[in-house]
Here is the input.
Amino acid sequence: MNAPCEHFVGLVPAEPTATVCEQCVELGDRWVHLRACLICGAVGCCDASKNRHARKHWENIGHPIIRSIEPGETWKFCFEDMVVER
Here is the structure.
């Protein structure tokens, strides 16, 4: 079991700002799954996607918490602490 993650404490999740990975659309690329930043709502593609825009958002902006925005999925993930919250 993963250790607790302080990034989830008191978090008021931002709503997703898009329904597509806009960076992939601009590049003419496709994605596998979509993730939304819970800090600002930015939407990016998952690590299984070619461009890994959700991870790049964390690396470039510093927002560590994402959630899946795939239908039926409710998990959240912290890149910094490598913790999944269900």
